[in-house]
Amino acid sequence: MDGSIADEFGTLSRDDWVARAEQDLKGAPLASLRTPLTPGVDLEPLYTAAEGALPASVRGRSGAWVIRQEYDDPRMEVCRDAIREDLARGVEAITLVAGLEHGTRVLTPGDLELVLDGVDLTKVAVHLESEGDALPLGLALVAVAEKRGVSPKELRGGFGADPLGTLARSGNLPSGLAGGLRDLVELAAFARAKTPGVRPLLVSTRAYHDAGASPTEEIAWALSTGVQYLRTLMDAGFLLEEAVPLLEFSISVAPRLFVEVAKLRALRWTWAKVLASAGVGPELARMQLHVRSADATRTRRDPWVNMLRGTAETFIGAVGGADSIACVPFDHTLGPSDGMARRVARNTQLVLREESQLHAVDDPAAGSWTLESLTDAFAREAWSLFQEIEQRGGMARALRTGFVSSALDASRRPREDRIARRLEPVLGVSEFPNLDEEKVERPAVSLQDVEVELGNPFGEATPDQRHEALLAFAQTLRDHGGEPGRVAEAALEATRLGVDVFSLGTLLRTGRPSLHLEPLAPLRPAEPWEELRDATDRWAAKHGRRPRAFAATLGPLAEHNARLTWVRNVLAAGGIETVVVEGVEDVAGATEAMGETEAELAFICGADARYPEAAGELAAGLKAKGARVVLLAGKPKGELAEELPKKGVDGFLFAGDDLLESLRRVLRAVEVLS
Q1: Looking at domain 527-669, does it have CATH number 3.40.50.280?
Q2: Burial 639-650, CB ≥16 within 10 A → b, else e
């Protein structure tokens, strides 16, 4: 056989494809299928070869990514046991979210020693995220390693110094921006000299992503943060080539495949462009990229669906070129994760890496017209936003002047509207909710009990020796003369003697005005819907059953089954149970059946053609039988839309409406909500 099978098919132009698509759309333009992603970028329904593509010189990960999990249980011993178990079963690196007031509570080096008991610090990379305590906690890690006989040069991981990320998340820098940047410089100088395997600086987009930032905003703000940290180090005497390897980027992703893969690729591309403009070569410019599941995508209701979200997010990280990935356990929103949830999270990564072999291809997104086009579009728009921030004075100024919060507010309102209209559905919550699900709960942790356990001793020093070490540290703070690294060395000496994190942190803040902002408010799409479910759960606990809605159906099932299913789904999202009586097809039957259901509300459901004749009479009959609220499934037009409310119809349920507000009105009317 000569030639290939492809020769049997003709060559079609883009216009041919557009014409065929619009034929199937029955005359609607192809542009009607576009999905807006950012103010300047749409997800197109049809792509051809991209005008720009990620350059081959912008290298991502080559080979396997590192399976890295996060730990933040406030209880030290519980956290220790979880880390031990996971490391024995496939986790390769850890992120310890810890500090005095968040995550795993740590007060002394002895507390950190307890948490890391059983962790081989010569083999396991330990990444700290400690908010405003990066300097004392990072040096506590070094002191713990030294006590075990591990040289600081053998340590791997990160110290997590990210003052701008801390400010965005918590709204507070206790030692002010100057103090936060001083600690950053101190840790960088220490790492350059003593811990070459540790990246002390972190650029995290968690706060921005969870607050609803667009992909291009997230990229631009990460770039500007990274540039500000590099400038800070260079002002302190670092060479750019020394400063760049000290940075790690931590990026949150949602389960939106095309969008998030393109975001990661565009971020790597634009960061390489930033460094190339300063004369840094492609090898040194390669970004150290950590990808984590977004907290905002997790749901409390039907949390099992979070397993699917975690799988998609891990896939995105792998395809997007992440060096390490953290898959957040499915029960993360409910409280401290249990062993089963952590096992599923780590096995998700193991299966995708070891069985699906996602690591075997470098940049598998390369050549995809969709992904290359989105990567190029995101990179261009993010670069413009980055330039705007730099012209305004950089990322710190953008946070302090409210530029970032204003940008988020502008995009938040339309997104909340999409969530309310189910144009951005949440599977298992606003779409296909399960009213019969068994609620998944995690026991609450008493912080008072946790605080009693703090303060494990460290070292053999006496209280007087610790006091002298603290005085010596205070003296160094006053007299260090701006020499990078002296403060960190003095802090380490005090830490070796067991001086606690709180005391060191207090001295670091002394004499420096704190900086306070309104923290960026997270936007979790499931939350407003879950609030309705919580309210109906409380009502059900009091009344012994859920609020009920009677389905007053008109005509045979074939006419209204799709509409009936849709309405049941909507009502269930608000925690309302639908009562369907078989054989009800007309006004008389529906009115009679209503009286036997004890339902608080009813909805009329049938074909549009039946509404003019029957809906008004039926609404009056349902009200007479005790329905406190009567809804109609559909969106009548013209005179009918004006007449039905006069005859007892209290509202219409239809796709595209603000269904969240409609459900709130219904629940207020039946006294579920006040």
Answers
A1: yes
A2: eeeeebeeebbb
